[in-house]
């Protein structure tokens, strides 16, 4: 069969058993949203098997090679799910205009394009999921699903019972109050404490701002867990593939089941 004929979707909004719409393919691969994919296609940035495609109903068939501005986009059946133990001093971006270290240098070489599921601050370490499954990544980050994230914070001083109550009830931040958190004091030492805190929001520098608001600035911060995925004994700067069981657990969370306990 002529591939170019087959590629025209009979109804513009439907995939067929033989192919998947190009905008959906790009969205699933984590490149961009479906709407923006249409824009990129119309701009002539997307090629299939080396030929620029501008028709929005175009289907991607098994074996097709898709690239965006020359960057190959892995077929969706080659889904990749990794956990990286992000070190402090590394940007959670694929490129940094200021030339700082980025997570890219920590990923296995020759890996198809993967994107981080959310961000950790430059000065935060710990669990960072990486995947080319853009749809699952978007779901895991969507506030509707409110995936639990647990952080181990070393903070100045010690929390009073009142501080713990405020964390449970929702600390006032400068924009709007944080949702209630789960807190476990791990240890108290001279001048500092180690505290595990679980939140389901993902606001900018949220944990740091919550402790700062209580007068206990964070000294170090490590994400121990993202939903069902734990850091375990993964070394700093190392990656490991998720197990099938972990991927299945993430999918449950992304389907709105079992995400949140706070
Ligand atoms: N909260 C923070 O303050 N920083 C992070 O990197 C993640 C959560």
What topology emerges from the helices and strands here?
Elements lengths: L2 H4 L12 E3 H7 L5 H9 L3 E3 L2 E2 L6 E3 L4 E3 L2 E3 L7 E6 L28 E2 L7 E8 L2 H8 L7 E8 L4 H9 L12 E8 L2 E8 L6 H8 L4 E9 L2 E2 L8 E3 L2 H11 L8
Parallel strand pairs: 9-13
Antiparallel strand pairs: 1-4, 2-3, 2-5, 5-6, 7-9, 7-15, 8-9, 10-12, 10-13, 11-12, 13-14
Helix pairs in contact: 2-3, 4-7
The structure holds uracil.
The site of uracil (URA) has 8 residues, from helix 6.
Write a brief caption for the model.
Helix content is 21%, strand content 27%. The chain contains 7 helices and 15 strands.
> What structural class do the secondary elements suggest?
alpha+beta
What count of domains describes the coordinates? 3
Query: What is the top-level CATH class of the largest domain?
Result: Alpha Beta
Give the bound compounds: uracil
Give an overview in words:
- The protein has 262 residues and is an alpha+beta fold.
- The chain folds into three domains: 15-73, RNA-binding S4 domain (Structural Genomics Hypothetical 15.5 Kd Protein In mrcA-pckA Intergenic Region, Chain A, Roll); 81-143 and 229-254, 2-Layer Sandwich (Alpha-Beta Plaits); 149-226, Alpha-Beta Plaits (2-Layer Sandwich).
- It is built from seven helices and 15 strands.
- Strands 7, 8, 9, 10, 11, 12, 13, 14 and 15 form a nine-stranded mixed beta sheet that branches. The protein has a four-stranded antiparallel beta sheet with strand order 3-2-5-6, with no helix packed on it.
- Helix 2 packs across helix 3 (34-42).
- Bound molecules: uracil.
- The site of uracil has 8 residues, from helix 6.
């Amino acid at each position: 069969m002529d591939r170019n004929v087959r590629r025209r979707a009979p109804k513009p909004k439907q995939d067929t058993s033989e192919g998947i719409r190009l905008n959906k393919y790009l969205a699933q691969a984590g490149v961009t949203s479906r709407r923006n994919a249409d824009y990129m296609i119309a701009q002539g940035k997307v090629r299939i098997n080396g030929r620029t495609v501008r028709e929005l109903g175009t289907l991607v068939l098994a074996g097709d090679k898709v690239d965006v501005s020359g960057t190959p986009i892995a077929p969706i059946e080659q889904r990749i799910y990794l956990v990286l133990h992000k070190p402090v001093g590394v940007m959670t971006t694929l490129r940094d205009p200021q030339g700082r270290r980025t997570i890219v240098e920590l990923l296995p070489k020759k890996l198809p394009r993967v994107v981080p599921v959310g961000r950790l601050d430059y000065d935060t370490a710990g669990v960072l999921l990486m995947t080319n499954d853009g749809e699952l990544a978007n779901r895991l980050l969507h506030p509707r699903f409110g995936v639990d994230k647990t952080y181990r914070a070393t903070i100045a001083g010690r929390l009073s019972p009142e501080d713990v109550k405020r964390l449970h009830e929702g600390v006032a931040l400068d924009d709007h109050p944080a949702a209630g958190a789960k807190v476990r004091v791990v240890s108290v030492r001279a001048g500092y404490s180690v505290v595990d805190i679980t939140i389901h929001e993902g606001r900018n520098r949220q944990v740091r701002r919550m402790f700062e608001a209580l007068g206990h600035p964070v000294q170090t911060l490590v994400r121990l867990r993202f939903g069902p995925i734990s850091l375990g004994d993964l070394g700093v700067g190392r990656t490991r593939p998720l197990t099938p069981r972990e991927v299945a657990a993430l999918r449950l969370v992304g389907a709105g089941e079992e995400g949140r306990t706070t």
